[in-house]
Amino acid sequence: MTWNFLDGTNLYHTENINWHYDDGGQKIKGEGAKMGIELKKPKCKLTGTNGNIFALLGKASRALKDAGQRDKALEMTKKVFASGSYDEALNIIQQYVEAS
């Protein structure tokens, strides 16, 4: 199923879509890059975890999922688990979320 917007762009319907709204109030799919929309990094409070990388990863993953970016959460998790150090893992997390 396809919906067409007034500006001529197409939005393709698939199962289990996570919708959210951009700053302009436009409804977009979680993985908006497929529609040419640059998604912003969700804000994520990375304090209060005593530096535990698994707790940090969980918070960042939840922030991405809440922003409708499940694919990014999975991608980030895979990269963190493949990383070779704490610092590398933390840098990966910060590439996906805006630490607040």
What would you note in describing this structure?
- It is a single chain.
- The protein has 2 domains: 2-35, no CATH class; 43-99, no CATH class.
- It has helices at 53-66, 70-82, 86-96; strands at 2-4, 10-12, 19-21, 27-29, 43-44, 98-99.
- β3 (19-21) and β4 form a beta hairpin.
- With 100 residues, the chain is of the alpha+beta class.
- Helix content is 38%, strand content 16%.
- The N and C termini lie far apart (39 Å).
- Strands 1-2 form a two-stranded antiparallel sheet. A two-stranded antiparallel sheet has the order 3-4. It has a two-stranded parallel ribbon with strand order 5-6.
- The longest helix has 14 residues, at 53-66.
- Residues 1-17 have low confidence and may be disordered.
- α1 runs antiparallel to α2 and α2 runs antiparallel to α3 (86-96).
- It is globular and about 30 Å long.
Layout of helices and strands:
Blueprint: E1 2-4, E2 10-12, E3 19-21, E4 27-29, E5 43-44, H1 53-66, H2 70-82, H3 86-96, E6 98-99
Parallel strand pairs: 5-6
Antiparallel strand pairs: 1-2, 3-4
